[in-house]
Amino acid sequence: MQSIVSSYHLCLPPPPPVLRHRLICQSLPPIRLPSRRSPTSLRLFPCAVSRESEMAAAAKEDGQDPRIPKIASSIRVIPDFPKPGIMFQDITTLLLDTEAFKDTIDIFVERYKGKGISVVAGVEARGFIFGPPIALAIGAKFVPMRKPKKLPGKVISEEYSLEYGTDKIEMHVGAVEPGERAIIIDDLIATGGTLAAAIRLLERVGVKIVECACVIELPELNGREKLGEAPLFILVTSDAA
Amino acid sequence: MSRNKQEEDPRINGIKTKIRVVPDFPKKGIMFQDITTVLLDPKAFKDTIDLFVERYRDKNISVVAGIEARGFLFGPPIALAIGAKFVPLRKPKKLPGETIFEEYELEYGNDRLEMHVGAVEAGDRALVVDDLIATGGTLCAAINLLERVGAEVVECACVIELPELKGRQRLKGKPLCMLVEYR
């Protein structure tokens, strides 16, 4: 079991053999950026999540973005948090690595700049860490999506399922306008419940979701399937357990 | 004579006009300072960050500590621009690793602020960021956390101050930089 207390200024200990961060920086043709896949990745992500007609656009298999390995290795895994059996993906160690944090933001900014995106929506609370720097760099507004009763003033809310019970996320009325183009940011996609609720909230007010973007995906939890037509862009994948 | 309030900068008024005041939230009598409307205006948001970055970029700040959750909106952009690490200070049980905590008083009862062990090192020069300073209780807890691990708190930075609540006096002598006052 790897030690929970890590030394931040040294390289993080290698993850235990059952858990591996797979390094992937994937582009999807609708945004018209070259597609890069990790040559070592064992799973090829199906591009078919997007139903855009430009699926056939050339994908340059020129290897992965060289910034990704450092980003992946800066993420700390904490076993049995918040409960036994869960391997928690801790991005706070990424935030302590100034180069890795900057690279993370740069990759997203390079992807979304100049694409007519006027809204970056970020899910409380870790989406608040990654969303605003991206929004600032691409000239978009930032819209926080919050747990109930945090946003003052008029809100609309959307319910989503948890393992036991439900929760809600809320957005301010009037924060976004019909016809705006949005990306939704969170640190990680697991089951996809929160992101799916965020998509529904924005679509209810007439916003087009260009893409969902997360640093980490836990692909075994199939969160991608909950996103409907919205594509998903991620930097790093990890086994859930 | 140093001024902690950037009152002559022409960008300040643009930011101030974007802050929305919501009466009676979270309860009757409170005039809530809503900064989400600043975030909806890319120029106002950028100006807010730029004002802080211009102030801190040459001060050798190695840590920006942001207080959950609205401190997470302003802290990371500042940290990225000045090349500092970002350290989230969170409510209990949110941070997954080993943490230290500091208690602080609420109107009724107490709450706790937590920080990861090892995130901040002795000798780090730190900035504490939140959207607003009211009574100063949370900021004081943040200062305590950072000082306990041997960091030097250089300044606290907030977009808004409610000066009548005298939070400035609760910062253990640390200076406060704010952009907008609300009386």
What does the model show?
The complex is a heterodimer of chains A (241) and B (183). Chain A has five helices and ten strands. Chain A has helices spanning 68-73, 92-95, 98-112, 127-138, 193-204; strands spanning 21-23, 76-79, 87-90, 119-123, 141-145, 155-161, 166-172, 181-189, 208-217, 232-238. In chain A, helix 3 packs across helix 4 (127-138). Chain B has a single domain (10-181), classed as Rossmann fold, CATH 3.40.50.2020. Chain B has five helices and nine strands. In chain B, the strands form three sheets. In chain B, strands 4-3-7-8-9 form a five-stranded parallel sheet, with helices on both faces. In chain B, helix 4 links the parallel strand 3 and strand 4 (85-89). Chains A and B meet through helix 3, helix 4 and strand 5 of A and helix 3, helix 4 and strand 4 of B.
Task: Describe the SSE topology.
The complex is a heterodimer of chains A (241) and B (183).
Chain A: E1 21-23, H1 68-73, E2 76-79, E3 87-90, H2 92-95, H3 98-112, E4 119-123, H4 127-138, E5 141-145, E6 155-161, E7 166-172, E8 181-189, H5 193-204, E9 208-217, E10 232-238
Parallel strand pairs in A: 4-5, 4-8, 8-9, 9-10
Antiparallel strand pairs in A: 1-10, 2-3, 6-7
Helix pairs in contact in A: 3-4
Chain B: H1 11-18, E1 20-23, E2 31-34, H2 36-39, H3 42-56, E3 63-67, H4 71-82, E4 85-89, E5 99-105, E6 110-116, E7 125-133, H5 137-148, E8 152-161, E9 176-181
Parallel strand pairs in B: 3-4, 3-7, 7-8, 8-9
Antiparallel strand pairs in B: 1-2, 5-6
